[in-house]
Structures are given as C-alpha cells and as structure tokens.
Amino acid sequence: MKTLWIAVAMAGLLVPGGSAGSAQTEMLAATPPMGWSTWNHFHHDISDALVRAQADALVSSGMRDAGYVYVNIDGGWEGSRDAAGVLHPTSNFPDMKALGDYIHSKGLKFGLYTGPGPKTCAGAMASYGFEAQDARMFASWGVDFLKYDLCSFSNIMKRESGGDQEKSDALMKAAYEKMHKNLLLTGRPIVFSMCQYGWGEVWEWGAQTGGNLWRTSGDISDSYDRMTSIGFREAGLSAYAGPGHWNDPDILEVGNGGMNAEEQRTHFSLWAMLAAPLIAGNDVSAMTEQTKSILMNREVIAVDQDPLGKEGDRAYATGPLEVWAKPLEGNTMAVALFNRLSGATRMTLRLKDVGWQGRAAARNLWTHEDVGVLSGDYTVTVPGHGVAMLHLSHLER
Ligand code: GAL
User: Which of 153, 154, 195 to mutate to test the pocket of ligand 1 (most atoms within 8 A of CB)?
Assistant: First the structure.
C-alpha cells in the first residue's frame, strides 16, 4: 500500500486516507495554495502564542472560509540540533505537535520552513545532512506544507561546482529532489514550496523536482514598485503553471500599510491573474475593512482558484498600460486593465486582442456590478496605479 501511495504521490496525486482500491484521488495543490504566513509582517518576532492568535483570527475574520487555510510558520522557529540530530524549535515554540494539533482543530493546515543548506538566510539551523530525519519529524508534527529556502546551500553549490554553472544548477535541483523524496517517504501529503528566487529558470524544472510551487523572484517588499516589478515579471511564464505546480511571486503585502488602496487592489488582482498562491502576509488579527474587502473579494479569489488552473498572461500593452487575460472554466475569461502610470488614464479593452470571439457579458469584479454587454472595444478610466478587472462570459442564446 505504501509503495502504491508513493507511486501515486510521485505522479502528483494523493489518496486521501483511502484504501488501495479507492477510486477517489485528489491532487495536492490542485488550485494555488491559500493561507497566511508569519514572514511579511512579523519576520522573526514569532511565537506559539502569536501563531495561535493568528489562526483564531483567520477563523473569526472569515479568512479561512474564504479559502485561506495554510498557517505557515516561516523562518524564526528553529533552535538547535542535539547530539542525536534532532532539530529543536526555539523556546518560543515549546511544543510543535501541540501547535499543529491546535491549527488542525480550527480547520486549518500547518506550514513550516527550512532549507537545503546547513543554515537558513537568518543563520538558523536548516536541514543539510538531516533531510530524512527532519522530514519525518515534520510529518510527525502534522506539517502539511514545507517551504524550502535555498539560502546557504548556494555556498555548497559554489564550492562543489568549482564555478561551473551547469554543475551548480544540477546540485540545486538534486537538493530539492532529495527533500521532496524524503517528504514522500513520510507517507504524509505535504505541499512542497520551493524558494530559490527563480534561479536557473526554475519554472522549467520545478515540477519535475516535486515542487507544488516555486518562487519566480527575490523577496517582495511592501511597495508598489517592488510588488509590480515581481508580478509583471511573470509575463510569458503562464505555460509553466497548472494544477499541482504554480509560479509563486511571493507572499502578499496587502494590509501591511506600504501601498494605497488602488495599489493593493492591483497587487491582489495581479496575483489572481497569475494564478499565484494567495498567502496573506499581514496581521489578520487587526485588519481594516478595506484590507478585508481586498483579501476577501470572493470574485477575485475565484479567478485565482479557477479549476481550469490556467495562469493568465499579458495580452497586449502600450507602455505602462497593460491588458492581461486569464482563461477560466466554462469558456469564460478574466481580464485586467492595469494602469502603471501614477495618474488616472483611459484604457481600452479590445475583445479580439484578448482572444474573445463575439460579444461578452461583463462584470466588474471590484465594484461587483454587471457592466452590460460588450462588443468590440470597451473604454474605461483606470485610476493611477490601479486596475479594472472584469469577468467575461458568453451571452445566453
Ligand atoms: C528569504 C525568503 C523569504 C523568507 C526569509 C526568512 O530567503 O526569500 O521569503 O522566507 O528568507 O528569513
């Protein structure tokens, strides 16, 4: 049974607690993972109590029910490794198994962070040489999601490749593959989140090394410039994403204070068009109504989570005025008109240039209003750094 399970899991599938004969199979990360991470807002200032409070807030705010289920502890939990090789959390996390149980009791899932190097980027203990042992321990804690951050493994790549780029890339791939295999051997379905900043065109091989998601860039920060430089950089990468394997432009900065409302709507719309993992990175225990209206805009979330699993892409652009399209199930489509200028600008959606045949019934996904029937061109004023996002469907015959 275990061998069968591993074979199925290797193919990107898992059998949820079923018997070998079960016809019911489910893909891991069939739609982009949604959840929350400690990193963008709290950085290393984290503890068991903080994570429990955020888990509570995910439930009471409605975030969990909107789809945000992974509670991901990023860097900062790791303490020291003992003589038997067991990696202990810092004293801020007295009992990881109990914390995992608490998270699960709330209908949420448990995410954790380590890396293939001896140390994380913050100089904490990572998994080099202890991959199997760590994977087993994570599974015993009930971990459902593992972010694997390259960090100091890049020194090993440099040293062992002697500067040969191909060798260096091969070492990186092998390191990710190794941890993925160890995760499979635990028998627990664990989403594998690759974080190596897009190096070596990871989108071309990330799925083969077991990645359910892989970062396409360096770290996001809470500014419109950084957010857009990361998000729009994914133009042309849509073919590499699909059910079970996603391009990841990084954790969301919505609600962290560095972007105005238009910019945050652009951020959330762009991530949805990219079929990106939606991992909130704010303090969910203290969200303004505006933050909630963005993170819990179910019509935009539905674009991200569309079961067809196609990433959107740039359809056409005139300088900083970009029109993106994302095919959705049922022969429908999402389109987003992004104005990257700082002032309000008239923008035109040309149906034929997003590949749409005939007329379209359009709905505005931010005003939640039906726009009416479009045929040919549709011109709209888009605020500076803002977005107009529409859902298009065919007219009833
Ligand atoms: C970086 C990573 C970030 C975060 C941080 C933690 O390397 O890209 O997303 O995980 O490490 O120290």
Answer: 195
Which pLDDT tens digit goes with each residue over 144-173?
999 999 999 999 999 999 999 999 999 999
| Ligand 1 atom with least separation from CA of 74 | 10
Q: Say if CB 74 and CB 113 are below 8 A apart.
A: yes
42 within ligand 1 shell (Cβ under 6 A): no
203 φψ region: left (φ > 0), alpha (ψ -120 to 50), beta (else): alpha
Query: How does DSSP classify residue 239?
Result: G
Instruction: Encode pLDDT of 195-221 as tens digits.
Output: 999 999 999 999 999 999 999 999 999
d(CA 297, CA 113): 28
What's the pTM? 0.94
Strand 360-364 and strand 387-393: the pairing is antiparallel
Distances (CA, A) of 3 to 7, 183, 187, 257: 6, 14, 10, 49
Residue 201: enclosing H or E segment and its boundaries? none
**77 within ligand 1 shell (Cβ under 6 A):** no
Residue-level length of the chain: 397
Taking the C-alpha atoms of 209, 213, 214 and 220 in order, what is their torsion angle to the nearest 10 degrees?
-170
